[in-house]
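Case study.
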Amino acid sequence: MRRPQLIINIAFGASLCILLGFALLCYERFNSFLHYSDTVDKSYHVLGQLDHLDGVLKNGEMEERGYLLTHDTSYLNGFKYGALNARPTLDSLCKLVKESPDRQTSIQIMNDSLGALFDNWKKDIGRIASLNPAGQVALMKSRQKQMDNVRGQIKNVENEETTFLEAQANGKTVYKRATPSYFLVLILVAGFITVLSFLQISRELKVRAKVQQMLEIKLQELNTYSLELEQITFAASHDFQEPLRKISTFSNRLLMKYSEELDQDARMMVERIDHSAARMRSLLGDLVNFSNLVRNSEQIQKVNLNAVVTDVLAELEGKIRERNAIIHSADLPTIRGYKSQLHLLFKMLLDNAVKFGREGVPSIVRIDYIMVSGDEIANGDPTFRDRKYHRISVEDNGIGFSDEFAEKMFKIFQTLNNQSEGYTGTGLGLAICQRVVVNHQGYIRASGVPAKSATFYCYLATTL
Amino acid sequence: MVKASILIAEDDADDRFLLQTAFTENGYTDAIEFVENGVEVMNFLHNLMVSSPEDPDQLAYVRPHFPSFILLDLNMPKKNGREVLKEIKEHPELKKIPVIIFTTTKSEIEINRCYELGANSYIVKPSSFDLLLKIIQQIRNYWLMTSAIP
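After joint prediction, the assembly is written out as follows.
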């Protein structure tokens, strides 16, 4: 991955993590505050209940004394009511502290003592009036002791609850003090990362804007070039042809009109002029073909290659007959492609195959077809590898060539044979073939054996 | 022998010479009128107008004065062949004159465009004098002898 991209990815990853951290922290903080307020609530409730118990005890004592003084049992009704009321209080106390076993134990102890106290007390109330004053004092004293004990236990529970509350408050303070510093650190880190990624992104954008501008300029240049190429093509197809045509016409006229006056030598010279003009004309024709291929304005359509071969053979009929050539063609597929370009491809290949026959040997040309995977071509270039290709091969038994020239043949105006050897070519035929296969997202290669054979393999993309 | 008048629009002096020679060599003594660009073609045709038989104050084209056919080059200065072709074929009277495009360009697009504009024939200039002789013979024979002028 490119470095700026990596930095941006990391920065955004970190920002996301920090954001998640914030969310988690806030959630936790909220939960702990809720828990704390819950605990405090319960503790105050416990303290209130204890206070209430203390009240119940005092009330009971007061009622008992009232009863003893007046012997009025209406005091005892209130007493009973107070003693009964202590039960639910104890139950709710037990419930309030159920999550901390320590406090539960001390409450249990207090609870037991209270229960015993109340039981005794109820029993004593029944007989206290019938006792003599000394007995009454003794009973009262013993209960006083028991009651002090219970009070001590209540106090104990109360102390425990207060300590617990203080511990909670302390924890909260520490936590409260630590939280803002966490937040501060996180915010600083997040801010730093944001600034960093902002700088990185803006720098990247600047680079991109510059590249885009450059591309636009290049595109403009390219458009100009292509326009100029078009003009050159037009000039080649028209303006350049005119003088050539005149050279031919006048030399032809010269030969006709002055045939008697011209000697052999002069006639030969004029013929050479004519021949050169004809050659130049065919060069220009191929150049126009080639530049039209580069522009490639044709529409893709379904092309039956068998029909294309039939057309081309009809076109080359004269040459084929002249060379006594035999053409074998396998059954070819119908593919998606540019019809006139494929026509040109077959024409060039077959023309070459027939043209470069060996003297005295009848030309035999084979056209074969097979579907192959892209592994076969272009040295395992990954852009080719994963595709399927139509492979069309054209093999002849002509003069062949040495494989060391296999690459060179496809360059513009490169020929392997001297014109004087009798093999005439414009040097553009194979360049045109290459351009056609490139337009079909394909590849062309050649292999040959000198004085034996030449084979051209065209790979045309199936995914066009 | 039939003697016709032929208008040839050709900016190239060599081609004019070759055409003239071809006519002479074929033994034709037609009145050949050479013009060198599109503007001259239109001027030539305009000068053919005479007083209308119906209304003496009005100028009009009269059929017998028309050239038998026009040989028209496409690439000419001032006004090119396509413009001339269009103007002639859009004119209610002039469109009756057969126009034969005689040019170097053999691009399919150009040929189709010319036929769409109303060209009566399209001939690519040959590159041998033999062929030129034959072509002139054929054009003349066809447009003067074979085809019936409407």
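Observations recorded in class. Strands of chain A lie at 301-304, 326-329, 334-337, 364-373, 388-396, 443-449, 453-461. The mean pLDDT of chain A is 82. We will return to this complex in the next lecture.
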